[in-house]
């Protein structure tokens, strides 16, 4: 199998973000269980056709593969290789190479598979027939995409009528992300557009990252609502996620600043107040304080 990424930044131990990325990889299964705990509040996660879009280390795909047919889909061949060697260890499983837009993957009608089907490709050209999936998981992916309209159209196309999307993404306007951007650990960057981050930060201080196509550009709550409102019924899960966070869920946070902030809040015993103030409304708390949004989007 050809590998096109020779030295991915996220495996470079000298990279300033290495420890952050390493922590995220180590809690891959825990992240998947957290995703499942939210989706289970919306629908019965059994005998579903599921697309894990941008599956990364494969933990979420592994969790959902126990009772569903799942496609673990990623742009990175190296990530899919790692799923074979670590999270997924089934002999004979190899990623499907990128498909042309004319060759759509068709699914079996049964749900006998107990491991994810691995597919390599672009979210802008999903190699699946229309109305293929009951559930699409988009976990910390959307902020890395450069063609939002193309992505939106493809996801809508392959999602079944009345299907569900799970979406998580950092909040552009969160005061906590303003103090420490979740991708770089520095102030202010969360507010900037991708080109401004490259021009004013990467070009000066992280030159090796300058040409990376996946530099994150965060979205605000209003931007997300404007994107999805017309085609989806939107539900927020802030209250639940805050409770999980302070109950010690390991699959939600991996940046130094946010981990220290949680510890500090527990130390001065204000975690109860934060839980009380958290809510699932489209208001000040979620617009300007909630660090990460957790949504379910039900197709109308």
Describe this structure in words.
- Helix 9 runs antiparallel to helix 11.
- Strand 1, helix 3 and strand 2 form a beta-alpha-beta unit.
- The protein has a single domain, classed as 3-Layer(aba) Sandwich (Rossmann fold).
- The protein has a seven-stranded mixed beta sheet, sandwiched between helices.
- The protein is an alpha/beta fold and 300 residues long.
Lay out the secondary structure.
Blueprint lengths: L17 H9 L1 H12 L9 E5 L5 H6 L4 E6 L2 H9 L31 E4 L12 E7 L8 H11 E12 L4 H5 L14 H12 L15 H8 L3 E5 L1 H9 L9 H12 L3 H7 L6 H5 L3 E8 L1
Parallel strand pairs: 1-2, 1-4, 2-3, 4-5
Antiparallel strand pairs: 5-7, 6-7
Helix pairs in contact: 9-11
Write a concise keyword list for the protein shown above:
seven-stranded mixed β-sheet, alpha/beta, globular, 7 strands, 16% strand, 12 helices, Rossmann fold, 300 residues
């Amino acid at each position: 199998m050809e590998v096109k990424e020779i030295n991915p930044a996220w495996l470079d131990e000298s990279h300033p973000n290495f420890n952050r990325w390493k922590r995220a990889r180590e809690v891959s299964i825990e992240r998947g269980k957290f995703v499942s705990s939210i989706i289970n509040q919306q629908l019965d996660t059994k005998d579903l056709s599921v697309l894990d879009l941008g599956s990364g280390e494969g933990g979420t795909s592994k969790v959902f593969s126990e009772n569903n047919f799942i496609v673990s889909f990623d742009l990175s061949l190296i990530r899919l290789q790692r799923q074979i060697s670590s999270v997924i260890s089934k002999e004979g499983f190899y990623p499907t190479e990128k498909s042309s837009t004319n060759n759509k993957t068709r699914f079996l009608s049964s749900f006998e598979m107990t491991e994810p089907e691995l597919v390599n490709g672009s979210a802008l050209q999903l190699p699946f027939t229309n109305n293929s999936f009951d559930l699409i998981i988009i976990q910390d992916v959307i902020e890395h995409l450069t063609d939002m309209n193309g992505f939106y159209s493809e996801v809508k196309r392959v999602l079944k009528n009345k299907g569900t999307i799970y979406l998580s993404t950092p909040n552009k306007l969160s005061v906590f992300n303003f103090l420490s951007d979740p991708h770089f650990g520095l102030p202010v960057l969360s507010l900037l557009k991708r080109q401004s981050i490259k021009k004013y930060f990467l070009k000066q201080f992280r030159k090796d990252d300058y040409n990376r196509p996946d530099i994150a550009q965060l979205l605000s709550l209003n931007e997300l609502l404007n994107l999805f409102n017309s085609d989806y019924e939107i539900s927020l899960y802030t209250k639940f996620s805050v409770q999980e966070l302070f109950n010690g869920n390991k699959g939600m946070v991996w940046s130094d600043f946010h981990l220290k902030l949680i510890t500090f809040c527990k130390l001065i015993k204000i975690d109860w107040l934060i839980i009380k103030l958290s809510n699932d409304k489209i208001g000040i708390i979620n617009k300007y304080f909630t660090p990460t949004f957790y949504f379910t989007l039900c197709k109308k």
